[in-house]
Amino acid sequence: MSAAGAPRRFTRRGVLAATSAAGVAAVAGAVGGDAAASVLRGERAEEVGGRRIPFDGAHQAGVLAPTAAHGWFAAFDLAPGVTARQLEALLRTWTRDARLLTAGEPVPGDDAMALGHGPSSLTITVGFGASLLRKLTMAVPAELAAIPPFPRDQLDPGRGDGDIGVLLTADDAVVVAHALRALSRTARGTAAVRWQMSGFNAVDGVTVAKGATPRNLMGQLDGTGNPKVGEPGFDTHIFATDPGWMRGGSYLVFRRIRMLLDAWDTLSRERQEQIVGRRKDTGAPLSGGTEFTPFDLGKQIPGGGLAIGPGAHVRQAAPASNGGATILRKGFSYFDGLRPDGAPDAGLLFLAFQRDPRDGFTRIQQRLALADELSRFIVHETSALFAVPPGTSSHGYLGQSLLEAL
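Request: output the structure for the sequence above.
Response:
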C-alpha cells in the first residue's frame, strides 16, 4: 500500500528503480557514495522518461530545446498531384499527433511500440524546402536560396533537400523511432520519406552532468560557443522576420559531416587541440580559462606565436572572424559501421538555426572551407535547407501561416 493507503501500481521501471534503491543501501556502506550515486541512475532515468516539452508555443519546440540523447531527421517529398488542401490535411493530422506524442499519449492507430516509455522530452519540428514552395507556386524567399557548393564537398543528391523536413529529438530512441513511424504512416498517399538519418548524444543528467556540453566522436566538446537565449541580439540572429509567414520562425541548415577519424587518431593530443583551438579534456580555449571563458584571439604564447593559431577552428568559426555571423547549432553523432575501405562511416549530423543562412551558415562555411585546419579531417556529404515556420497556438496547426499566405 502507498502512504495514502491506495494500492501501489508496480511497473517494470518501478521495480527496477526499487531494486536499485535497495542495492544502494547495500553497496553504499561497502564502496562509498560515488558507487551509490551510480546505482541511483536508474531512478534518474525514470525522471528523464517523464520529462515533457510543450508542443505549442511562439517557436517550434525543437529550435530552443536542450540537447537530446537521440536525434532523427527525415525529409519527405509530396506525392505527384498533391494539392494545397491535401497538404493542409496532412499538417493538421501531424499537429494533432505531435501534440499527443510529445505528451506521451498514443495516437490513432498506435502500434503500442512506445507504450510505457513516456514523452522523454520529445520534440517534433517541421520545415519546408524551396521545392515545396515551388510546387505551391509560391515565391521562394531569398533566405531559402540553395546553399552554394564549398571546396571538399562530396554531396549525395539522393540524401539531401526535400519538400518537408522533420526533426525529431528525445532522450529515448524508441520514442523517436515510434514518432517518425507514426508520422510516416499518416503521410501515406500524400508524402513519402525521401531520406532519413539518426544520431545520438549522451543522456543529459544521467550519463553526463545535467547541462553538460556534448562531446563528439573526435573527443571534443561540441557546441560550447552557442549563443544563449536572452543574450543581447539572440532573437535578431536566430529568428526570421521575412517573409510574413516566417516571422518568428528560423531557417534550418542540415549537414551530414563525416569525420576522417583514422587520420585524426594519428595526431597527437596536442596537435588535435591546436587544430580545434580548445583543450580536449575541459573544452577551455587555448588562450586560457575554463570552457566558457571568451577567446582571447590576440594572446601570445611564451616565445612568440598565437595561443589560438591562425587556422584553428574556433578562430575561423568565431563571429568576430565572420562579420558577426551567429548560428544556433545542434549536433548528433552518428556511426553507421565501416565503409568499403574499412574506415569508419561516422561523424556529425550538424543542424544550424539562423535568421538568414546567407549571413549565417554560408558566410561561416565559406571561411571554414578555405582556412580552417579542421576541414582536412571532415567531409560534408549531405546538405539540406528548410524554412521552419513559427510555432503553433493550441488551436493552430503546423505551417498554418504558410498555407494562409497562398
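Residues 51-404 form one domain.
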